[in-house]
Amino acid sequence: DAPTCAGFVAIACGSHHSVGLRSDGTVVTWGSNRNDQRNDAPTSAGFVAIACGSHHSVGLRNDGTVVTWGSNRSGQRNDAPTAAGFVAIACGSHHSVGLRSDGTVVTW
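User: That's the sequence. What structure does it adopt?
Assistant: Structure tokens below.
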């Protein structure tokens, strides 16, 4: 079931899960948890963007780092970059893409 709380500024959908970004920078998840799309979701604030793949999600933090959760079947989590400097994120079915502040693109 979708959350009943207000204050969302962005939403994203995977195959069977959804993620919402609230105005306070926290992330809310709902839907399937078969691949830990919900259990592994971050509980801290500081997020400025979200994206969903089929069974994984990515969050962009206000310090330019990325956080991943959900399935790792295709390396969606283990291969995620650990450096800061990202300004945008996107997801495909089984991969993610980040745009760095210098205009370079990183995929994982």
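The longest strand covers residues 8-13.
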